[in-house]
Structure formats: C-alpha cells, structure tokens
Amino acid sequence: MSALTIALVAASLLCRAPAAFAQAEAPAPSAEKLASATPGAAKLAQEFNDPLTALPQLFVQDAYTPANYGTHAQTNQVIARLIVPRIPRYSLLPFVQLIRPNFSVVTVPEGKGRATRTEFGDMGLFDLAVIPWPGEGSGLLMGVGPVFVFPTATDKSAGQGAWQVGPALGAIYKGIPGVLLGGLLQNPISFAYTSSDRRPLSTLLVQPILLKHLWRGLYVKSADATWTIGER
Fold first, then answer.
1. Helix count (H) and strand count (E) of the chain?
2. Range 126-132 average pLDDT
3. How far, in Å, CA of 148 to CA of 142, rounded?
4. What is the phi-psi region of residue 186: left when phi exceeds 0, alpha when psi lies from -120 to 50, beta otherwise?
5. Closest among 66, 71, 77, 79 to 107, alpha carbons compared
C-alpha cells in the first residue's frame, strides 16, 4: 500500500471525530447565550489561534512566492490543517488528545525558466496529549507527543522522499488578559527513504504564536509561519 493511500485512509477516519465531539459536548445554545455571544469574540479568537485548543477546526493557508533564486518561475503552496480533538470519552488516553494532519498542494519550478508544475506534497501529522500539569488555573497548557511526515508527494520535486518521525511539544500561556503567548516545536527525523538518492533529514520546526485582543472580534497576531532550523 502506498504512502498516499495510507494518508488518505487515515484522514477519512480522522474526519469523523469532530462530528461526534460536537454532538456529545456542544448542546444547542439558548437564546440568552446567543445574545451574549459578542463578548466572547476575544475567547473565540484565542481558541482559533491556540494550537492546544479542543475546538475542531479547518485552517487553509496560501503562500505565493513571486520571485525565487535561480529560476524565473513563480511558486505557490496551499496548506490545509485539520484539528481533531479527542476528549477522554473518545480517546485512548485519560486526557485530551489533539490530532492535527496537514496536507499541501505545491507549485514547483521545472527548471530555470518560467515553467511550473502543481503536485501534492508530503503529509504531516502530530498527535499531542495535553498534560494535566501545571493545571488550567496557572494559565499554562502544555502538550507532548509524536510528529510524523509521510512521503505522499506525487512528484520528486514536491516532497522530501523520506518517512520521518520525532518529538513534538506545544505550549500556550493565557494568564495575561487579552494576550495569547505560545509556540509549537516539532523535530521530524528521517528513518526510511523512497529512493537511494534521498538524503537524511533532521529538522527543527518552530512555530511562534503571539496574539493581542484589541476590541470585540478585532485582534492582531503574529504571522502564521514555521521557522526551519538545522535541516540537513
């Protein structure tokens, strides 16, 4: 079975979780709750940007690059991330489990000219368990677990050609009113390859998070970006 087939089967199973979670944990809101929904915009903004949130969500991002070194081609990358929370009732663990697969469609150059091709990229997935220490009263939440990278790219130029696994750590601090601080660390390490010419990989991925609520549903935040450190 190919890596792409495994990834698609896993994704189809994961997509069932948000519906079950919503049915079990989110009763229909009353009229009073609907009327007071506006003051909760700040909390919703925090939940949406919190990597350890138990709020099911789908995030889509498009990154367009008009100029690249060594080629005249213009490249593009579309990333879709799905957050699937698993509460203790549905999880194998006695605490909240967060599963986040991400898929990408990339437009890559075919040479030094302007020609490009669009392919599916590698699939990534991390599975974080939100640990009970030090507790919600402190404002600090932490999650630990594994991160995986599956070589699902449909073309050699669109992926790394390596099966990867490693540790992941997420932390978020909500102790300052109207402010969200945190980050996400991932270190996928290659252990198997799709071809003999693929090189070993060990990459530290750092995703910083900073959000400041301004008024009602208005807030400013750091750009959604992942810093790549130590790729080899």
1. 4, 12
2. 90
3. 19
4. beta
5. 77
pLDDT digits (tens, 9 = 90+) for 94-109: 888 899 999 999 999 9
The region that residue 161 occupies, defined by phi over 0 for left and psi between -120 and 50 for alpha, beta otherwise, is left
- The 10s digit of each residue's pLDDT in 3-25 is 444 444 444 444 444 444 444 44
68-83: buried (b, 16+ CB within 10 Å) or exposed (e) per residue?
eeebebebebbbebbb
Whole-angstrom distance, CA of residue 205 vs CA of residue 153 = 19
Q: Which two tokens stand for residue 126?
A: 């991390």
Does residue 62 contact residue 78 with C-beta atoms inside 8 Å?
yes
Query: What is the count of structural domains for the chain?
Result: 1
Cα–Cα distance, 131 to 148 (Å, whole number): 20
Q: Are 106 and 95 in contact (CB under 8 A)?
A: no
Domain holding 150, by residue range, is: 3-229
Do the Cβ atoms of 51 and 208 come closer than 8 Å?
no
The CA distance from 27 to 4, in Å, is: 37
Tokens of 183: 């980050």
Closest-CA residue to 145 (of 163, 174, 160, 165): 165
Global pTM reads 0.75
Q: Are 150 and 163 in contact (CB under 8 A)?
A: yes
